[in-house]
Amino acid sequence: MAAPLLSLLQLADSQTPIGGAAHSFGLEGLVSDQDLTVDDLQGFLIGYLEEAGRLEAIFCRRAYDLASSPDDSFAPDWVRLNREVSAWKPARESRVASATLGRRFLRLAMGLSDEARLHAADAVARTTGCDIHQSTAFGLVGSVLGWGIDDTALACLQQNVAALVSAAQRLLPLGQTRAARLVWDLQEVIAGAACAGGETACFTPWLEVASMRHPALTTRLFIS
Question: Residues 95-123: what's their mean pLDDT?
């Protein structure tokens, strides 16, 4: 029982070396436009979790289930799933960031655990030129390593929120204690988003536009 828990704690840590600290997913643009302050962060993150977070959890769970599918159907279904994620990310910056982190996360897991399904997922993505998104990589790895589907979805969203709060700390006057309290107070919202089912939907135009405008910022701390 200890091995899955320990691997979950390690790979779900916000400091996992996949380059997450280089991306703000549109947060930098919102701060630059003075549309987001420290006092706005909690409401912003709640909205993010209820829309984008819920969508990420849905795809994470679908990837988790896909990990146990037959070999002959896994490859086309894996490609189709990741292309669907891409279609839900209209902002190129956020789409590329998700794909970069997903590919790095999967390859990090491959280097730590020599599981055949992880290598198959990477190989088919290379062959088809398909992206590997952060949510799908997380779900696949979680299933292969035996984390449990609910724990995997929760950890995926916790990692996303921690990364956004970390970006906010570099963009806004947000101290360590307040940042920790912010994440702590979002536990129920994270759990709700991670377990939500139903229709696949997401509406975050404010954040998407900020992501699209990111390359035009006069100064930038983040890639996205």
Answer: 96
Please give the Cα distance from 124 to 43 (Å, whole number). Answer: 39
Can you tell me the distance from the alpha carbon of 103 to that of 18, in angstroms, rounded to the nearest whole number? 9
| Interacting residues of 208 by C-beta distance below 8 A, sequence separation 6+ | 26, 90, 91, 94
State the Rg of the chain over Cα: 17
Rounded to whole angstroms, the Cα distance separating 95 from 26 reads 11
Q: Is residue 211 part of a domain?
A: yes
User: Count of domains in the chain?
Assistant: 1
Q: Is residue 121 part of a domain?
A: yes
Domain annotation covers residue 223? no
Domain-embedded: residue 139: yes
Angle at 81 between CA 79 and CA 83, to 5 degrees: 70
- Other beta carbons within 10 angstroms of residue 208's beta carbon come to 19
pTM of the model: 0.94
Q: pLDDT tens, 125-175? A: 999 999 999 999 999 999 999 999 999 999 999 999 999 999 999 999 999
Q: Domain range for residue 150?
A: 23-216
* CATH code of the domain containing 205: 1.10.4190.10
